[in-house]
Amino acid sequence: MTTYDAGAVTLRKVRDYVWEMPKQGDMRVPARVFASEALLDEISDDKTLEQLRNATHLPGITKYAICMPDGHQGYGFPVGGVGAMDARDGCISPGAVGYDINCGVRMMTTNLTYDDVQGHEQELVESLFANVPSGLGGGGVFEGTVGDVDAILEDGVQWALRNDWAVPEDLEHCEDEGKRPDADPTAISQKAKDRGKNQIGSLGSGNHFLEVQRVTDVYDDEVADAFDLTEDQVVVLIHCGSRGLGHQTCNDYLRRIEKTHAGLLDSLPDRELAAAPAGSQLADEYYGAMCAAINFAWVNRQLIMHRTRQVFEQVFDRDWRDMEMHLLYDVAHNIAKKEHHQVGVDADGTVVADDGDAVEYETRELYVHRKGATRAFPAGREEVPPAYRAVGQPVIIPGSMGTGSYVLRGGERSMHETFGSTAHGAGRLMSRTQAKKEYRGGDVQTALREHDRIYVKAQSGATVAEEAPGVYKDVDEVVRVSDALGIGDRVARTFPVCNIKG
DNA sequence: ATGTGC
């Protein structure tokens, strides 16, 4: 038996790229890490595996706790973690969703080629920077009232459509058509709404960005065709979340859950895993609030995308429709969703980790927590929009501003292995503090411009240093593992042209 | 990630 010794824990190799942490002590289920040995070396470098083991203590966790190839430590629960808790007798945990509720990415395609854009990069990056608000604090493309925020929380991208910030096809190309029906705006605090009202349509800071990219590689012609992707094509990638509103909401519910469900909290190995039992009032309230914050983040990305269309109109002096600036897809990276999944059970009706041990299958309703993980539903699932149902949903995985990004499609194995999920990005190699010691923002910018013709403009030089390409893991390796596992298949690769960030 | 600590 091949094992991987990670100090405090030893992992058993199940098969290529699949490692299991056996169930021991108070663990309710085993844990599985989906990674190559090279990525395991990085995953075992911080508290990721300890947090993964802690997550197996959560009530109702089904089958196993999951760590993706880009996993690293987060608040209580790993970033790159997936936990599916029974919606009837399990729990929901804000720490397993993340502070930035519905942090995610959307990609917009165009009919422009790299040739059309070359020579305009400076003007484009300046105009994007001037027109798309970024950085910490307030200022969005739309300054609303708390009443507007309520409507956004309730209706998601339908609000944007009513207010001329969207066209109907945008809704068809967004997860859940840009609206979570379970959203409950009354479950969002006044403080969170106040923080949100002047951040509608704003990138924020940290690893959030807007990037103009060119498609450099197509790996699957048939799927790329369905996604309308071709080599040399210019696309736009937008990565941001729910800003202060989502952060405040996560914080509000963590504090309330800690107080109200102190007994459950005492049974867990880490306070940061605080969870509300399924069926409790607070579980329903948090779920309603989280769904509302999801809607807010979708509207945020929608407004940024629509403003980007206007910037392209200005720079290229053409109507955005002529440039065929269509939303490919919008995917959430930090979310919990009630979903129905088939699980294998043994003769006693107990869920088994390995489908090979199942005597039959049952369908369960689960709170699928994806924290730094992407839904990757394969062809045929009804949740995949009609335009993509024959090939599987688009999965968008951003890399760093110097290495490019990937488009994948939901893989056939994802429903069996990972509750229909795959990785979400490259994952950090070093802390922000360490990054600022290693790099200077100005030097990073100059190197990218001179070596790679990538135009970067940021509010803060420190952010450029913190986000330097060298602070990230190898996104190629993360995607290679996803593809090899069959949970998310490579479709195309992009390379940056212009990047704006906080 | 975040009006960058509680």
From TrEMBL:
UniProt-annotated binding residues for Mn(2+) 1: 100, 208
Keywords of this entry: GTP-binding, Ligase, Manganese, Metal-binding, Nucleotide-binding
Obligatory cofactor(s): Mn(2+)
GO molecular function: GTP binding; metal ion binding; RNA ligase (GTP) activity
Magnesium as UniProt keyword: no
Cofactor binding note from Swiss-Prot or TrEMBL: Binds 2 manganese ions per subunit.
SUPFAM superfamilies assigned to the protein according to its UniProt record, in alphabetical order: Hypothetical protein PH1602 (SSF103365)
Reaction(s) the record says it catalyses: a 3'-end 2',3'-cyclophospho-ribonucleotide-RNA + a 5'-end dephospho-ribonucleoside-RNA + GTP + H2O = a ribonucleotidyl-ribonucleotide-RNA + GMP + diphosphate + H(+); a 3'-end 3'-phospho-ribonucleotide-RNA + a 5'-end dephospho-ribonucleoside-RNA + GTP = a ribonucleotidyl-ribonucleotide-RNA + GMP + diphosphate
EC numbers: 6.5.1.-
Binding residues for GMP: 207-211, 333-334, 398-401, 405, 424-427, 501
Keyword Ribonucleoprotein attached: no
GO biological process, one term: tRNA splicing, via endonucleolytic cleavage and ligation
Superkingdom of source: Archaea
Pfam family for this entry, one: RtcB
Family classification: Belongs to the RtcB family.
PANTHER family, per the entry: RNA-SPLICING LIGASE RTCB HOMOLOG
Name of the protein: tRNA-splicing ligase RtcB
Species the sequence originates in: Haloarchaeobius litoreus
